[in-house]
Fold this protein.
Amino acid sequence: MPGYRDFQSGLRFLPTLVIAPDGSQIAYVDDRNGQFNLVTQSLSDGGTRRLTANTDSTVRRVAWHPGGEWLLYLADDHGNENTQLHRIAADGGDPVRLTDVPDVQFSAAEGDPFSPDGRFVAYCGNDRTPADQDVLILDLSSAEVRRVYAGGGRAFPGYWSPDGTRLTVAEWRTTNSDHLVYVASLDGAEPRSLTSRDGVATYWLGPWLPDGSGFLVMSNFEREFTGLAVMDADTGALTWLDTPDWEVQEVALSADGRVLVWNVNVDGFCQLRGRDLGTGADIRIPELPAGAATGLTVSADGRFVVLRFSTATQPWNILLIELDTGELRWLSDARPVAADPATFVEPTLVRYPAGDGRQIPGYLYRPEGRASAGVLISVHGGPAWQELPVYMYDGFYQYLLAHGIGVFAPNIRGSLGYGRAYSDLVNRDWGGGDLTDLADAVAFLRSQEWVDPTRIGIMGASYGGFAVLSCLSRLPELDWAAGVDLYGPSNLVTLAKASPPTWRSLVAAVIGDPEADADRLMARSPVTHADQIRAPLLVIQGANDPRVPQQESDQIVQRLRSRGVEVRYEIFADEGHGLLRRENQAKAFADAGEFLVKHLGQ
């Protein structure tokens, strides 16, 4: 039977893409050498140039200087997420650090971090005080740093105005869906607020209009779902461009301000939409395969779009769409190392009833030719995230299916993609309604004639790992066959106390305050109920994880080992939150696959 490594794509890409100012090249991040590094690729002949060759740090984001001669990138060390800004020439050479404070996390503006004239870089960091993330401007000519927003909390730079005198800023208040918007000026004036502090709404910032009168935002202001609008730069008033009953996720605008493209998440599937802002006419975009996209960007002249795209049976690759002709051109060709895609299984989008009457969406993968099969429930991280119809865990689902094991990946309450009310249900209720949804998922599976009710397991990463531990410890009567926990928290009190300083307010709003809510958090913590775990468990953890520290996994493993419960514990010394090194990912999922085949297979 094939091993997990046969299903790996041989090449992974992070969701960061940027087109060179002259449209001749793209820059992206891949792991061809085993670690994520910066690459440029010619769009004329496909030739690539590998600009970095890091072995201990991960390149996480990239931007191209307006002059085209060099690139900016963010990289951290051994997964610690304390990313620093670097510059490197487009034709190669030694990188130069633009920031060098190892204990501080810096990040570049979500849009193009460079001012239109290329003189300034907009970025953010918690260098002033660990708990606050300010917005800063670096003058590349003098190396002077100015602090343009220091209002407390977590602030992120957005986009530069066309004349380079203003910068949009988003302040994240208590949760990922509670934002305020400001316009900061380089003249030293106080940032001007454009949104009310009353109420809660998301405002994901987008590019400015060419005349500087306003800028694009993706917002759910007075709406259930996130739509696309223009925000007036003086009044903050919104003019809606698209208000679907689904979530707008990404937006891109050509440098000339003419071609607007955005991505609507329709039940997890990517639906690209476009408009010519000059004529007001919709742009016809060719139909894409049934999958999901990230990293949406459009060329300066509006001729083409580039994005990262995947389906349930196709690994992530980079796709170019010629808007004039409708041609789709793949710029990369990542494919399974040895497994045959013709044997892969497409998921079925289903909905199952929850105890409170809600319908919970999910993707159900049934193995071919099996009258009876075990099933793995896979829970996504976040919880503000969404299971998508993509090549999950670099082919892990397809590996299990090849071994006769089904996969069910539900988007339980708290998931993104289904409106504001649904995503907010899990806030301060970890281990509450979400746990009930997972119990209902088991009932749904046991109602399927092909599912072996004695061979149901569960796996998840981060928040999904918490869900695994919660199910095994608090729902032992469901007779779980096995569990795989990837860097999931086991103690909500110690997790909250150890959270990064800039995350404290977010953690209090989403999970709870470790002091005021200690009793409730401990009651919901898997470690409190560890004596009820009887299913075999595999735990995978990065030693440098700043979000879910190793002590979270240590606690649950120690409790289980003291009782003689079967638990396998793997710690990766050179990883943080996630498995970014190719060899580590291959080992972890190969081991997880063998573990699950043993306990869920026939």
